Amino acid sequence: MSVAVAEPVLEPLLPVLTPWLRTRRWYGDAGGPLDGIRPVVVSVVHDDAPVLVHAVLRTRHRNGAEQLYQLFLGLCPELPERLAGAAIAIVPEGRWQGWTVYEATEDPALMGVLLRSLAAREPRGGPRLEPTSPHPLPVGLVPRLLTADQSNSAVVYGDRLLFKIYRRPEPGPHLEVEALRALTERHCTRTPALHGTLYTDAPGGEGLVLGLFEEFLPVEADGWETAVRQVGDCVEGTGTTVPATGGFTVRARALGQAVAEVHTVLADAFPRTRVTPGEAAEEARLMNRRLSLAVDEVPALDRYRSRVSALYDDYARHAGRGCPVFAQRVHGDLHLGQALPTADGWRLIDFEGEPERSAAERAAPQHVLRDVAGMLRSFDYAARAGLAAVRRSVEPAPGLRLRHIRRADAWMVRNRRAFIAGYAEAGGADPWCHPVPMRAFEADKAVYEAVYEARHRPDWLSIPLGAVHRLAAVRG
């Protein structure tokens, strides 16, 4: 039974949770050094060993920034060997003194307890499920934690249900929940069906969207992994269909069609507005502002500042001359990793928007070509990642190395073109007919990527810098 607790059961755990929290993939350190942490929501979902505790913590940083984090914690007197990797620490004091506290999402037993509790709609105070499907949740399926490196966590139940946990929860309405609900109600076949949304009614956390349950889409590999593998075949000349060039273009065209179909449904479900010249000028100003901040963090961008800024200004002038520009709800963070090649065709997932953007930025209507630009950038990344994988397996001779680079470049160009062709064929705005906004949006995305890579993956920084170099050389 889920019970909100007034007693300070979590306070004794904070000294051991704080250093652990900083090691999580989903921990954001943009606020600078940590100045404090306190519980906002605490509930005991299951009070018998192993205990399941749900919590939302608020961190405070020295620069005044605050952030919410959601935890599912298990506690038991003696941790089984199979869960040794989930251990956080020994509880130093309090009602569970001497017990082991651990990451509960790695414990199938506790994740099963959670699902049964939610399905039974037990008394309020802890997490609460708001169903969107008339069908009951399949509580008898075996849960397992997905191990993909993500900014959220996901638990799969059997091969039917996916529980997505928002590690940094936000007050509703939530972008992804809104989008998936609308897409599900309109029977969109290009996205997973939404089964329910997780909230909390606990004092202090009212209105927080904690996660969602959606249709699980089992695939051997996502679009990113599939594309990178195809690049390797292309570079090495081992592709079974077209050995020297690779055979991903049919899939790339189909992916473009799928994205256009999703955009069409979103345009029907949410307001679509024409961007005024003033709004376009403000968007260009914000892009220039992001560029200036990026240059401060990535000095290598400075040599391109004036030419990239000119691309943004071209976009504002383009709209000011009466060229129609429309904004609507879009995916917001579209790349190959957000596309799954299922037996029924491509399906798009994760409609939260770019994790580094503010909630206000992610909620604002955008041009559909921003999604297109994101996918085009992803083809560039896949080509470079596939090339790097080949080089790690065997160091080619100088002449062969150049051939490999040319093949990777050719793969990127062909598949970008195939994606654009598929998008236009399915009724999307033909990117070839909108070169000015396309260049501006792709440059803005590459600048964003440069900052991300500088912070998290410096070895990959050359990829977005190469794109900025290419885009800065093209105008008119």
Task: Provide structural commentary.
By secondary structure, the protein is of the alpha+beta class. The chain has helices spanning 14-22, 108-119, 175-185, 223-236, 249-269, 277-297, 305-320, 359-363, 368-393, 398-425, 435-456, 462-472; strands at residues 3-4, 34-46, 51-61, 66-76, 87-90, 100-103, 127-131, 143-145, 153-157, 161-171, 194-200, 208-215, 273-274, 326-327, 339-342, 345-348. 41% of the residues lie in helices and 20% in strands. The protein has a six-stranded antiparallel beta sheet. A six-stranded antiparallel beta sheet has the order 7-11-12-10-9-8. A two-stranded antiparallel sheet has the order 13-14. β11 (194-200) and β12 (208-215) form a beta hairpin. α4 packs across α9 (368-393), α6 runs parallel beside α11 (435-456) and α9 (368-393) runs antiparallel to α10 (398-425). The longest helix is centred in the last third of the chain and has 28 residues, at 398-425.
